[in-house]
Design a protein that fits this description.
Aldehyde Oxidoreductase, domain 3; Molybdopterin biosynthesis moea protein, domain 2; 29% helix; Molybdenum Cofactor Biosythetic Enzyme, Chain A; 3 domains; 6-stranded mixed β-sheet; alpha+beta
Length: 340
């Protein structure tokens, strides 16, 4: 570092805090260590009685924290991500729309194992609102060797962006409600309204609900009826347990759908089923979805709405983090549920 006249410090980096004192009004830091001095700052420093200040001498191949943080953020960002201006070395990445947050956590780990630089993100596969801060970058010291940032840029070039947002689609959803007690009108359907509300909240719409008895052929016919009218996702409620008259899985099979997974390592929601027919997802929901605020359905639904095709390994991975605390005051998704 070196001492220079304030008038000659334009564009230089302050290497110590500058305290401002206004008797009876203010005492505190006016300029922080690491601040890059602007033309406007010079007059303010002179007003504070500063004739000379200590600055860092910049060297070729060395980056200031603001430049380093911004370069990291730019290579880390994918689609529907915005950047903040650098602030004391930190750059925030924000969602540009409501959608499903995706994090390339394999590449993220390769970056964070390097010295003196870091990127922190929210968890992958959660729904975020427009404007949500989803990640932040910064270096640990005030300056860093440029080659370390170039290594991060190489990782992102080779492995793609670190973080992006998949916009949520508007899907046409069909509901099949099983159970002879509902079909005959002995009890009022309470499952359908729960599903309708979740579909509405995520921005899609229910185009038709069909009531059927506990009958394999009726379930199969209902699946195919909904496909014929353009359903892009079909949700079958009830009939997913091990009782002899719980025939939903058999009905989905008879409709010609390929079952990807029957059962999930998630509580609540272990009896969850997912199948596909003609690339259209068919979900079999256990009764817990009606009674519990958050279940396996809330983990899988946003991914389908964002356009993902769910694979069996997507389900099996949910076991680590698949136990819900059933908190009295639910904070999902700001909790461990569904996060491996």
């Amino acid at each position: 570092m070196k001492s220079v006249p304030v008038e000659e410090a334009l564009g230089m980096v302050l290497c110590h805090d500058l305290t401002k004192i206004v008797p009876g009004e203010f005492k505190g830091v006016a300029f922080k260590k690491g601040h890059i001095i602007t033309e406007e700052d010079i007059s303010k420093m002179l007003d504070m009685g500063k004739k000379n200040i200590y600055v860092w001498e910049m060297q070729e191949g060395i980056l200031h924290e603001n430049e380093a943080g911004e370069r990291m953020a730019r290579v880390a960002m994918g689609k529907e991500i915005l950047l903040s201006e650098p602030l004391e070395g930190k750059v925030s990445l924000l969602a540009n729309c409501k959608g499903l947050l995706k994090v390339n956590y394999t590449a993220l780990e390769k970056i964070n194992v390097l010295d003196e630089a870091m990127i922190a993100t929210l968890h992958t596969d959660i729904v975020v609102e427009k404007g949500t801060v989803v990640a932040g970058t910064r270096i640990i010291p005030l300056f860093i060797d440029e080659f370390k940032i170039e290594e991060i840029e190489r990782i992102c070039k080779d492995e793609g962006p670190i973080i992006w947002v998949e916009p949520l689609k508007t899907m046409k959803v069909g509901i099949i409600t099983t159970g002879s007690e509902v079909y005959t009108g002995r009890i009022t359907d309470k499952f359908g309204p729960v599903i309708r509300n979740k579909i509405f909240e995520i921005g899609s719409k229910v185009i038709k609900q069909i009531l059927v008895s506990d009958n394999v052929s009726m379930i199969a016919d209902a699946v195919n009826d909904l496909l014929e009218i353009g359903a892009e996702m079909i949700i079958v409620t009830g009939g997913m347990s091990v009782d002899p008259d719980d025939v939903t899985p058999a009905g989905i099979r008879e409709a010609g759908a390929d079952i990807i997974s029957y059962g999930a390592p998630v509580l609540p929601g272990s009896m969850f089923l997912i199948a596909y027919k003609n690339h259209i997802p068919v979900l079999g929901l256990p009764g817990c979805v009606m009674y519990n605020k958050i279940t396996v359905f809330d983990l899988i639904l946003p991914r389908i709405i964002a356009g993902e095709k769910i694979k069996r390994e997507d389900i099996t991975k949910l076991g680590h983090g698949g136990l819900c605390f059933n908190c009295k005051v639910c904070s999902f998704p700001a909790c461990s549920f569904g996060k491996c």
